[in-house]
Each structure stands twice: as structure tokens, then as C-alpha cells.
Amino acid sequence: MEVIHTFRRKPAELRDFLPTMLDVAGLKVPDDMDGRSLLTLAVVDNPQWRKYIDMEHAECYFEDNYWCALTDGKIKYIWFFRTGKEQLFDLSNDPHELRNCSGLFAYKKQLEMMRNEMVDHLSERGEGFVKDGKLVIRESSLLYSPNYPKSNMI
Predict the structure, then answer these.
(1) What is the pLDDT of residues 19-44, one digit of tens each?
(2) What pLDDT, in 10s, does the model give residues 41-77?
């Protein structure tokens, strides 16, 4: 029962399945593999684990569809690269993401904390994403969906 409880409180994702299967088979998980073995969560008390799952969406159909997000399963922060718009969802109370809390005073500290986490997350990409400790609005995209109208590409 405790193992199930632990799994529910740690963010895991698809990229963790291959390292888990290698671990179960008794094979070494390559150091450069993107993902972690879920067995760590089952056998280690208070394991070192990621705080958030990151998500990213390239432009598809319109410019505002280019965003990056972080979630721990309880809160979700979304940064829109082209507009600078932010969204914050309290997934514990709003699992369907119907209420954007980014403009609510009660969530001000949570929004600032998640924005800082996004700055840390994107800073490895360089000044095109983070400059002077702030998120940068991008004037162009790196990737486009195959369905994005070619006439809108920069």
C-alpha cells in the first residue's frame, strides 16, 4: 500500500518506462538516458526524484499555440513563448483545468515560484529563452507542426 501511495506523489512519465524495463531486466540504465527507473520509487525511502514533468507544444494552427509547461500533478504552470501569457491551474481542486488562477491574488506566490522554476528549466537553452533571470518572449518558433499554415511561418 505504501508503494502505491509513494508513486502517486512523484511525477512519472512515459520516458521512465524504458529505464524501468531495463532495471527490471537487471541491465544497466545508460547515464545519458532521459528518464529514470520507477523501481527507485518502490524501493528507496525519500528518493531523489524530479520535481516536475515538463511539457512543450510547437506551433500548430496559430502562433499562440507555442508553449512550455511544468507540473507536479498538483499544480500546472504554462508559459506561452510568443505572447508571454501565463496560465496556472490548481489541479488538486480543478483537475479539468477550467479555472486559470494566474491572475488571482491567492495564487500570487505560487505563480512566482512556478515562473522561477520555468526560468531555471529554460535557462539551459540560452538568452533566446531566458535573459537576466526573466523569461523571454520569442519572436519566432524553432518548430512548426506539419499542419501549421505555411503562409504564417517566419
Answers:
(1) 889 999 999 989 888 888 888 777 77
(2) 777 777 777 788 888 777 666 667 788 999 988 999 9
Distances (CA, A) of 7 to 3, 38, 46, 61, 72: 6, 8, 11, 36, 12
Cα gap 146→85, rounded to integer Å: 24
DSSP string, 106-132: GGHHHHHHHHHHHHHHHGGG-TTTEET
Going along 23-92, which residue ranges are E strands? 53-57, 67-71, 75-80, 86-90
Rounded to two decimals, what is the model's pTM?
A: 0.74
According to DSSP, residue 29 is labeled: P
Measured CA to CA, the distance from residue 92 to residue 74 in angstroms comes to: 5
- CB atoms under 10 Å from CB of 91, counted, come to 14
